[in-house]
Specification:
This protein is of the alpha/beta class and about 160 residues long. The chain is about 45% helix and about 25% strand. It is built from 5 helices and 5 strands, in the order βαβαβαβααβ.
């Protein structure tokens, strides 16, 4: 193929869900070429901190509470990344893996990082929300599909089909 890139950057949005882990497995099985140079970027987005030193009423939280919440967030990131590493090992690939953790509204952070990286593809799991829940909450994958500049693959878990 003339003009085809040898190197491909694939971003997989991961979280605690089985859907995102399935999307990662699907990506490794179907998108990652073991013969070319690929970079797989595992992107985890932490929600913005819900507690600061002061709450909405102006009460001060102890630094122990704030530290415990920050540690919980870090433990969650580590847990998700360990699960992704186990999946990648199962596939025995020699792919270059980068890990990025963002903080904020998932849809905005994902779109921003995909753009900054110049990603070739974004892979996301679908949580399989019904019409009403999607209408109320919005869908991160729908939003990203409309706003990123690269192709987006939304992978449904087989149990949600």
């Amino acid at each position: 193929m003339e003009g085809a890139k040898e190197e491909c950057k694939i971003v997989v949005a991961v979280d605690e869900s089985r859907e995102s882990m399935y999307a990662l497995s699907w990506c490794l099985r179907n998108l990652v070429s073991h013969s070319s140079k690929n970079t797989l970027v595992l992107l985890y987005v932490k929600p913005p901190p819900t507690v600061s030193s002061f709450d909405a009423a102006g009460y001060m939280f102890s630094s122990d509470v704030v530290s415990a919440l920050e540690k919980y967030g870090s433990d969650l990131v580590n847990s998700v990344m360990q699960r992704t590493e186990a999946i990648i090992r199962k596939f025995g690939t020699n792919i270059n893996v980068e890990r990025i953790t963002g903080t904020g509204d998932a849809k905005d952070v994902i779109c921003s990082i995909v753009g900054k990286l110049g990603a070739d593809t974004l892979v996301m799991g679908s949580h399989g929300y019904g019409f009403f829940k999607r209408a109320l909450l919005g869908s991160v994958s729908d939003y990203c599909a409309k706003h990123v500049k690269c192709p987006v693959v939304i992978v449904k878990h087989p149990e949600d089909i």
